[in-house]
Design goal:
Chain A is mainly beta. Chain A has three helices and 23 strands. In chain A, strands 2, 3, 4, 5, 6, 7, 8, 12, 14, 15, 16, 17, 21 and 22 form a 14-stranded antiparallel β-sheet that branches. In chain A, strands 1, 11, 13, 18, 19, 20 and 23 form a seven-stranded antiparallel β-sheet that branches. In chain A, a hairpin with a 5-residue loop joins β14 (174-179) and β15 (185-191). The longest helix of chain A has 12 residues, at 294-305. The model of chain B has no long low-confidence stretch (mean pLDDT 93). By secondary structure, chain B is α+β, with helices and mostly antiparallel strands. Chain B has one domain. The two termini of chain B are 27 Å apart. In chain B, a hairpin with a 7-residue loop joins β2 and β3. The chains are: A mainly beta, B alpha+beta. At the A-B interface, loops of A face α1, α2 and β2 of B.
Chain lengths: 308, 87
């Protein structure tokens, strides 16, 4: 018998109701009272490769007590029963924003890990999705929600909030991107060996505006990125654990607004490969100006995770 | 990581798809359109030749003996990586 997703307890986060308008929101915890779907779909790694949808547990988190449903095989009522002592990999991370921008991975070898040898991968007890830095990544289908343009050549603001345990700063490796190369390039948040960097591409490729962050470091932290939509590097600002970073190494080329291309959004990599080694607990993205609400969003996230 | 070089992305994808069927992944074994379909990730080459490499990080036993013998630890020296003007 299928088990329906649990009813959100009053104590669970209402982040997406307090700060409305997210266009994509992925988390190992329930962050919307309105969201009644699953947390993620997993493939168990015992060799049978059965898949199942995983709900949030009674506390609103992904855990071994999370109810499961829609099994393609195997047995059990919970993630722990289903996986036993083997691994489990995230094949689909459901979008809690209500926009339906789910992130998927159809290739077994490229699916990030959520359970390792019967234990939920965690950062100090916080469940995280482990991207191995080799070939892991998730893909969101092309959507105008994540093209930071009005479609008529004028950029819109963007805001990203990512709680993750970054393991490396290797050059080129990418946290999230909407960039298919060629004439389908929009934006990317990546690392250049020592810093993190954000670029926006004009006309589907070619010229860009970009800037990097002098305060980049590995480790468990809340990374935020705001882009004002001003079509310039000057509108880009990284934050680490709520504090504004020093932005430098800017690049300003001819830029006439972001195109709305057909490229997909890649979490954990870019069209060049460039897979990043990190463990992600949460990603929330807005296509609206969050300058006035950024601190509130960060506080709300940190209240749950106690990162800093 | 071992790589298996194919002459095109289509060939590499088809081989990973076949391995997915052999492995009994959900797309094949259970008819789940949103299920796991492929076994190995692919690296595409840039430029005109556009070869593709399967990243055989696991399930090497799904390869034939000939394919296993053809595995290489590094991409070919003449591999054309996609351009990335991200400076």
């Amino acid at each position: 018998m299928a088990i329906l997703p649990g009813v959100l307890a009053a104590s669970r986060s209402a982040l997406l109701e307090e700060y409305t308008g997210a266009v994509a929101a992925f988390s190992t915890r329930q962050i919307s009272r309105a969201y009644t779907g699953y947390a993620m779909k997993v493939r168990e790694g015992s060799g049978m490769n059965y898949e199942a949808d995983v709900s949030f547990d009674a506390s609103g988190n992904v855990s071994l007590t999370s109810p499961i449903a829609n099994l393609t095989g195997g047995s059990g009522a919970t993630l722990g029963d289903f996986v036993s002592s083997s691994d489990a990999f995230c094949t689909l991370w459901y979008d809690q924003s209500g926009e339906g921008n789910n992130a998927t991975q159809s290739t077994a070898g490229a699916q990030p890990k959520i359970v390792s040898s019967g234990t939920v991968v965690n950062q100090g007890g916080i469940p995280v999705v482990d991207f191995d830095g080799s070939d892991d990544g998730l893909t969101i289908a092309d959507t105008a929600d994540l093209s930071f343009t009005d479609g008529s050549g004028t950029d819109t603001p963007a805001a990203f909030f990512v709680a993750h345990n970054l393991n490396e700063l290797s050059s080129g490796n990418t946290l999230i991107s909407k960039d298919a190369g060629g004439s389908a390039r929009e934006w990317a948040w990546f690392f250049d060996g020592s810093d993190q960097r954000f670029y926006i591409k004009s006309g589907g490729g070619g010229n860009q505006q970009s800037a990097d962050d002098d305060d980049t470091a590995t480790g468990w932290h809340l990374a935020s990125l705001l882009y004002s939509g001003n079509e310039s590097y000057s509108g880009m600002q990284f934050y680490r654990n709520g504090a504004a970073s020093t932005m430098d190494d800017t690049l300003s080329q001819t830029y006439s607004g972001m195109s709305n291309t057909s490229s997909t959004v890649l979490i954990g990599n870019r069209y060049t490969g460039a897979c990043i080694s990190t463990e992600i607990a949460e990603i929330v993205i807005y296509k609206t100006d969050q300058a006035a609400t950024r601190a509130g969003i960060e506080t709300a996230i940190n209240t749950h995770y106690s990162i800093y | 990581m071992p790589f298996l070089i194919h002459s095109s992305k289509a060939d590499a994808l088809a081989r990973s798809d076949q391995a997915g069927e052999d492995k009994g992944l959900a797309y094949h074994a259970h008819g789940k359109e949103d299920g796991t379909r492929y076994v190995w990730a692919i690296i595409e080459e840039g430029g005109e030749t556009a070869r593709a490499a399967l990243k055989v990080s696991q399930d090497v036993e799904l390869l034939t003996a000939e394919e296993q013998a053809a595995l290489v630890e590094q991409l070919p020296a003449d591999w054309s990586h996609p351009t990335d003007d991200n400076a």
